[in-house]
TrEMBL record:
Underlying gene: SLC44A4
Cellular component GO terms held in the UniProt record: apical plasma membrane
Protein name: Choline transporter-like protein
Any one GO MF annotation of this record: thiamine pyrophosphate transmembrane transporter activity
Alphabetical keyword list: Antiport, Cell membrane, Glycoprotein, Membrane, Transmembrane, Transmembrane helix, Transport
Pfam families in the record: Choline_transpo (PF04515)
InterPro entries: Choline_transptr-like
Length: 707
């Protein structure tokens, strides 16, 4: 009924009775001090990296476009001119591909000016206007699209030859701070550019224009439906609380219903495979006739495929039935622990909202990394070089093409037609710029380490709170007044180093997985089948290792919260305790996973169905105050509600899962420490005592325990 004694001591000795033990110990010392110091030094270095990035970085290079002189549009002297106009935007498409242009800040080899508004009509100067001045043709007609400082008395022909003013204007709309032409514009007669290239250029920038329209529509949809999304999230919160209450009342029937449901699904799968197999067997469709093929769907038409699936499902059905028969006692223990966990959560409702603090801390870690990475990426100064449309023309021989230049300085006296000082890239000189890669790696390590530490903090704090519930002899009288706050202060004060140690181990494994994925992505085209197989094996091993470390860390944090020992000792004790009760561990883990999966399915599915019927207008007669908003994309608030419901359900059920794991370890320790006598009574609930066939000579409530 219980665990078998570990005679050879392969998994350590059972915990001994300690008359002074009353749950999470009060007198404890700091653990893993060296790792705590390293973590604090690392955080200090992380802050220094952020300061360096803030000093040398300039995110305006990403947020604002630059004109040909290097000035930003939308700020400073161009505050009233937020948009960038390309004199000949088709040079961007013809001179380079759109991806390269995007990585260079959407710069291209054509003059660019900051404008207050994009041109709204097609315009091409007539030959009769060539002899007029810039003031007459451009400024007086409100065409303020010439370069800054062009005099109004300059002849139009001269301004066009020197590319001081645009040769044509296309009706445009702003997108990403830049003027992009409309797709239905009539192509003007332009020298050097054919109608085909114009259509290609417009289609190339059409995606950016559509993206702008879509973003506006998305913003409008959120503005129209945000309060209904909040209502959907509130429904998700209520459903999560209702499910946990349901576990307290009907955990046994619910678990039985889920197990029978799985058995029924497998039984139907067996029936379906048998039916398909019998039909194909009568038709004589065999794999010997099909042979080997890479078309996997073809294997559905042979009898051997369905026979193999039939055997596999039958084996799974048999294993599940045998587990249900022979492990029924342990399943009853798992159900009782689930009920006890629901009671613990009910006694400490503040734990249900603790994930909000964890979420805020995670948001801070991710936002800090994102801002640091952005500032580091923009720490270089822009570099400009000389460029001309045709370097072979007369007068261009003396121009040092691709040599550095200053767009703010007066133009040198070169006679090369169309010569410009254009943006090339951001400089990589200087100590900070040369160390950007290393600093970015430091930032990624900081992101993973801090995120894993925050998650570890949440697990350890919750474990301390729930352990105080289990080891309270008289419930709820002996439960501390503020168990969550006490556990939080205790964890931060004494065990920051232990949490950092566990988080660092997990971080190194996760970084190894990322490096392996990067190598696999880079070498995918050059790998042979053997190399791909080896790479898959390595990735599978690292995935399994990460899962195991997460499991070990989780239980180690529980032991740290209770006993206050360092990470290695706590991990060892937790692992040995679990191995001494491995069958109970497997049963409880699978039953809990099944229940939490069903709970998430209930919450997310319920909110998703409700949101679909509401936002799609399929619910009629709700009245004026409850009418669905008129949306461009009704699926957008639906998906937002579903994702939000999943996040809320995951937060609530993670607390419940941590409670189950903590109570389970305490239950195993209780079995080893105590025997139910008057001097050593069990701390477990009466339902667990009844299932185990045990009883207390001094049951909880009858004997006063000194604290």
């Amino acid at each position: 009924m219980g665990r078998k004694p570990d005679k050879d001591g392969a998994y350590g000795k059972p915990a001994k009775y300690d008359p002074s033990f009353r749950g999470p110990i009060k007198n404890r010392g700091c653990t893993d001090v060296i790792c705590c110091v390293l973590f604090l030094l690392f955080i200090l270095g992380y802050i220094v990296v952020g300061i360096v990035a803030w000093v040398y970085g300039d995110p305006r290079q990403v947020l604002y476009p630059r004109n040909s002189t290097g000035a930003y549009c939308g700020i400073g002297q161009n505050k009233e001119k937020p948009y960038l106009l390309y004199f000949n935007i088709f040079n961007c498409i013809l001179g380079t591909n759109i991806i390269t242009a995007a990585t260079n800040g959407l710069q291209c080899p054509t003059p660019q000016v900051c404008v207050a508004s994009c041109p709204g009509a097609l315009w091409v100067p007539q030959e009769s206007q060539y002899s007029q001045t810039v003031g007459e043709v451009f400024y007086s007609e409100n065409r303020n699209f010439c370069r800054p400082g062009v005099p109004g008395d300059l002849p139009v022909l001269q301004s066009l030859e020197q590319e001081l003013c645009p040769r044509f204007l296309l009706p445009s709309s702003p997108a990403l701070g830049r003027c992009f032409p409309w797709s239905n514009v009539t192509s003007p007669e332009l020298p050097g550019i054919s109608n085909t290239s114009i259509s290609q250029g417009i289609s190339g920038v059409l995606d950016a224009l559509n993206a702008r329209d879509i973003s506006v529509k998305i913003f409008e949809d959120f503005a129209q439906s945000w309060y209904w999304i909040l209502v959907a999230l509130g429904v998700a919160l209520l459903l999560s609380l209702l499910f946990i209450l349901l576990l307290r009342l009907v955990a046994g029937p619910l678990v039985l219903l889920l197990i029978l449901g799985v058995l029924a699904v497998l039984a139907y799968g067996i029936y379906h495979c048998w039916k398909e197999y019998r039909v194909l067997r009568d038709q004589g469709a065999s794999i010997s006739q099909l042979g080997f093929t890479t078309n996997l769907s073809a294997y559905q038409s042979v009898q051997e495929t369905w026979l193999a699936a039939l055997i596999l499902l039958a084996v799974l059905e048999g294993i599940l039935l045998l587990m249900l028969i022979f492990l029924r006692q342990r399943i009853r223990i798992a159900i009782a622990l689930l009920k006890e966990a629901s009671k613990a959560v009910g006694q400490m409702l503040s734990t249900m909202f603790f994930p909000l603090l964890t979420f805020v801390l995670l948001l801070i870690c991710i936002a800090y990394w994102a801002m640091t990475a952005l500032y580091l990426a923009t720490s270089g100064q822009p570099q400009y070089v000389y460029w001309a449309p045709n370097a072979s023309l007369p007068g261009c021989e003396e121009v040092p093409m691709n040599a550095s230049c200053d767009p703010m300085a007066p133009s040198r006296n070169y006679s090369c037609p169309g010569l410009m000082c254009v943006f090339q890239s951001y400089s990589s000189t200087g100590l900070v710029q040369r160390s950007i890669f290393n600093l970015q790696i430091y930032g990624v390590l900081g992101l993973f380490w801090t995120v894993n530490w925050v998650l570890a903090l949440g697990q350890c704090v919750l474990a301390g709170a729930f352990a105080s519930f289990y080891w309270a002899f008289h419930k709820p009288r002996d439960i501390p007044t503020f168990p969550l706050a006490s556990a939080f202060i205790r964890t931060l004060r004494y065990h920051t180093g232990s949490l950092a140690f566990g988080a660092l181990i997990l971080t190194l494994v996760q970084l190894a997985r990322i490096v392996l994925e990067y190598i696999d992505h880079k070498l995918r085209g050059a790998q042979n089948p053997v190399a791909r197989c080896i790479m898959c094996c390595f990735k599978c091993c690292l995935w399994c290792l990460e899962k195991f470390i997460k499991f070990l860390n989780r239980n180690a944090y529980i032991m740290i919260a209770i006993y206050g020992k360092n990470f290695c000792v706590s991990a060892k004790n937790a692992f040995m305790l679990l191995m001494r009760n491995i069958i109970r561990v497997v049963v409880l883990d699978k039953v809990t996973d099944l229940l939490l999966f069903f709970g998430k399915l209930l919450v997310v599915g319920g909110v998703g169905v409700l949101a679909f019927f509401f936002f799609s207008g399929r619910i009629q007669g709700l009245g004026k105050d409850f009418e669905n908003p008129h949306l461009n994309y009704y699926w957008l608030p639906i998906m937002t509600s579903i994702v939000g419901a999943y996040v809320i359900a995951s937060g609530f059920f993670s607390v419940f899962g941590m409670c189950v794991d903590t109570l389970f370890l305490c239950f195993l320790e209780d079995l080893e420490r105590n025997d139910g006598s008057r001097d050593r009574p069990y701390y477990m609930s009466k339902s667990l005592l009844k299932i185990l066939g045990k009883k207390n000579e001094a049951p909880p409530g009858d004997k006063k325990r000194k604290k």
